[in-house]
Every structure is written in C-alpha cells, then in structure tokens.
Amino acid sequence: MTTNSSPQLWLYDTTLRDGTQREGLSVSIEDKLRIARRLDQLGIPFIEGGWPGANPKDVQFFWQLQEDPLKQAEIVAFCSTRRPNSTAATEPMLQDILAAGTRWVTIFGKSWDLHVTTGLKTTLEENLAMIRDTIEYLRSQGRRIIYDAEHWFDGYKHNRDYALETLEAAIASGTEWLVLCDTNGGTLPHEISQIVQDVISHLSLVISQEPMTKDKGQRTIPQIGIHTHNDSEMAVANAIAAVMAGAKMVQGTINGYGERCGNANLCSLIPNLQLKAGYSCITEDQLTQLTEASRFVSEVVNLAPDEHAPFVGRSAFAHKGGIHVSAVERNPLTYEHIQPEQVGNRRRIVISEQSGLSNVLAKARSFGIELDQQKAEAREILQRLKDLESEGFQFEAAEASFVLLMHEALGGRQKFFEVKGFQVHCDLIEEKETSNALATVKVAVEGKNILEAAEGNGPVAALDAALRKALVNFYPQIATFDLTDYKVRILNGHTGTAAKTRVLVESGNGRQRWTTVGVSNNILVASYQAVVEGLEYGLLLHSQAEAALKASS
Fold first, then answer.
1. Is there a single domain that holds both residue 234 and residue 111?
2. Measured between alpha carbons, how far is 236 from 252 in angstroms, rounded to an integer?
3. Among 144, 162, 325, 474, which residue's CB has the most CB atoms within a 10 Å radius?
4. What pLDDT, in 10s, does the model give residues 105-148?
5. Is 175 contained in some domain?
6. What's the pTM value of the predicted model, to 2 decimals?
C-alpha cells in the first residue's frame, strides 16, 4: 500500500507505438484516440502516441489531440536522431515532430557501436554529433526531451566506454531523462541491476568533476528510466530490477503488447511496484481500474484477453481445487497474494470435475443461491456436475449452464419455452463458393406451438435466427441478445468424424455476457444445446432484473 511519503515512479506507456508493432495488431486513428483517453483516465503520466511523419495515421492522431487534449497525461512524440552527415535544423522528420505540437519528445539514438558502424554506416564520433545536434535543436524549439538509449545493455556489454559517451552527449545537450533500453530483450535481472547502478555512479562522478558556472551552478544527472522487452520472459523482472537500482521512469505497454515477444507489461508492473515495492505510480482509485483498462485495450485492438494474465486475467483469482476453495472461503490470504479488488478484479470459484462441495456452495452463493451442505440437493448438484464433465461438458468455462443445472436440481428451473424439434438444411454453391443454411424449429411457448424458419450463413446461425424469430413476440428482450462467440472442441479425435464435440457459445445483452455449453456426437445437437441454454439464461437474467426492480419500488 502506498502512502503520501512513497517514492514517486513515472509511468510511460508506449502501447500506441511500440505495442502496435506486435504481429497481427492494427489500430485505426479512432482506436488510438480511445486507448489514449482510457490511459489518461488510468493516470498514466506519459503516453507515447507514435512517430509523427512516419505515416498519415500518426500525423492525424496528434492533430486531433491538439484540438481535444488529454486531461492529465503528457502526449509524447517519438523520433530518431537526425541522419548522418546532415543537420537537425534541416531534417524534415524533425519538422514533423515540431508540427505534432507536443511539449515532450522522445528521441532514440544508438548506444551500441555495432549499430553505428553496421546499421547507420557512420563513425562513432558522428553518432555522438547526431545525438547532440538533435537534442539541442529540439530544445531550442522549446521541447523537453526524453532520450531513449537504444540497445543500451548490449552496447554497454560490448563497449562500455563508448556507450557511456552516448549518454554524456545526451546530458550535455539538455535531455531531462535517460532511458536505458534492453531492445533485444536478452539481459537478465542481475545484469540490469548492476549496469543501472554503474551508470548512475559513473554519470554522478562525471558531473561532479565538471567546473561550476556562475549562471547555472553544478549540473545534476538526469533521471534514469528503463525500457525492457520480453524475449527472455524477463521484461517485468528486469524493469523492477532497474527501479530497485535507481530508475525513476518505467516504460511499458498495456498487456505487454509489442514486437516479437512483447514489452514490459504495465498491468503487472504497476501493481507489483505499487502494492508490493511501495512506490507511488497511480492513485488507489485508478489502480482499481486496471483490470477494466486491460480488457478495454484488448477489445479495441481486437485481441482475445489473456485469461491467465497475472493481476488482471479472469483466472488470476480463480480457485478450482476443493481444498483451495475451502481455505479461501475461510481466509482469502491462504491462496491469494493480494485482494483482487485492489486491481479491479474479482475472486472466482471454478466448477469442474475436480470440485468439492465447497466449490459448489461458493459458486451457488456468487449467483445468489444459498445451498445447505447438509441437504441432498448440494451433493446431487456435485454428482451431476462430475457425471456431466466425465461426458465432456466443461462448466468452468460455461457458468451460465451450471446455474441452470443448479436451478433444475433445486426444482426451480423456469421453463420459458420448450423446443419440440428442429431441422437444418444446407446448400453449397460451388461456383459462387458460398453456402446457405435454412433452419426450421418447432417451439412451445405458453401452451402454443410455433413453427418458424430462418436462413443463415451457416447451420448454427440459421438455427439461432429461427429460435429468436419464434420467441421474440413472447419475449421482446431477445432482440437485445447477441451470439458473441462460438467455439468448437473435438474431444476424442481418434474416432474421426464420429468424434464427440463440445460447443461453447458466448452470448450477451449489451451489459452482460454469459457462456453455455453443449456436448454431443452430432455438432448440430451440441450447438443446439448451447444456443438454447444461452437464450434461456438471458431470459432468466431479464426475469431476475425485473423482479429486483419491482422489489425496490
């Protein structure tokens, strides 16, 4: 827990630049703006928006933020040092940086002599001139500078003296931050710690030996930052090691997005540094938004969230083993390293064939169902659960189906409708490479039999459409239900096309999402089971909401 006296750490988010270099990740201008504003709400002090001039999208992004600025965060433009054998004042890309209108600019330069001679194909002295000239020019234009020392740790290990010279050049030119980058992601925490300490000691010694001037007095060393990549699965550990060694800025991305194996994950760094190491990163209220922010960014970039991610993953505080659940029910500290609510997450009791009675009781309670462990219903539910999971059902991923199972065991499962039967017919038009499906369903509702048909681009879509068409006149709220995801798993593939199939269907109503499961040797029957229970559970939620509203009024 942080206090008013906790040391301050400065967070620097590069999701919108470094994060978008992840393979398969692409965002629009609107996406970038939505993410930037969400990070602003989260309390991130520095948000790197991209490289103005590198593409039209980034240019427009910075223009839009000039028109409608963020509330508290500094938006930062990113760029390299000028090209060899030119001048910063005549460098076109630096004019684009100035046009972006940001107060802060991050400039990256080469620290590793290999990159200078092989990559830039210039001399070591010219590289130092590029660093000095670029920073001095931007400073003359009123910009504040963060200097990213690219490939710093590799450069240090191969040629320590030259790598340190590059930092001295940046300091002499007026940078306010020196960020040490483990660009290849191959350094280990003990190396990070030792090198950061050496950098701080060396630069302090160099500056202390400089003569004082009348107008400026003794110069001070700029603040040190850290930027790590995850190629050795060490990005978070390396960033923490750097902070412990004296770094005051941590650069990373939401959910660890980034090129190759990704960047340091801010969703792990922030709670580790704030809740465990005692640093002040964001406010406690903002920290409780971390899980929602992580999922928001996942949704915007159209990548499935990592359910097992530390702190913010859906499974981060999920308990499956019966002994674990029993202990957590008595005292959460037995199997939880922090309170899930501190990061905006929640405890989940997972139901599976490994469950004990304590799992069933806790899960029932989470859905407002009080079970008496001394009565037969509780053990009947547990046995039914184990029997169904042995057949291939999976209730830990389909909690809505488990709720319906509990209601049925307790004799209170509401029959909103009954499907009497269905048929599905598919046509494949090879010349057009298209397929159409027609589903016909017979449903009984309130003593009436309804026969309806509907088309879809596949058998499940057609079946879902036909069911909705048959039921919507009786239950208008069905029009708000969406089938948001559909997953198929073959359970015994060695039997070929006769294999048993498990289908998970995720549904939603714009406010909530729920998942149901079906299992059968026939994929259509398994799909039918999951789709029908998805509609039934949605109606149950609506019924419970109406009952609660009436009770409150």
1. yes
2. 9
3. 325
4. 999 999 999 999 999 999 999 999 999 999 999 999 999 999 99
5. yes
6. 0.72
